[in-house]
Amino acid sequence: QVQLVESGGGLVEPGESLRLSCAASGSFSSISVMGWYRQAPGKQRELVASITSGGRINYADSVKGRFTISRERSTVYLQMNSLKPEDTAVYYCNEASVVGNYWGQGTQVTVSS
User: Fold this and answer.
1) Choosing a second label site near 52 at 20 to 30 A (CA), which of 59, 75, 92, 110?
2) pLDDT digits (tens, 9 = 90+) for 35-77
3) Residue 62: helix, strand or coil by DSSP?
4) Residue 34's closest CA among 63, 66, 73?
5) Residues 47, 39: contact at Cβ < 8 Å?
6) Rounded CA gap, 94 and 37, in Å?
């Protein structure tokens, strides 16, 4: 089993920044993909960014140039700059490996003036 604990969400104004963290614990594989997804009200959950244990990174087109994903051992971070109202959503951490596919509880990010 893998447990994912997210932190760092909140309410910010457009143009401001937030940093999300996700710490993984439990019996997880050293080879995995960790990522951030988000789900806005009335919309499907979508991939924001992902990073493999080998360092390969993927971003959604809507966040390229504004968001940065990084990984340190079993913790993954999402630095979000130049936030826009359309970034408002619940952000979920995910880890996928041969052990299984796991989700965090989600953290709310609200961008509003």
Assistant:
1) 110
2) 999 999 999 999 999 999 899 999 999 999 999 999 988 899 9
3) helix
4) 73
5) no
6) 7
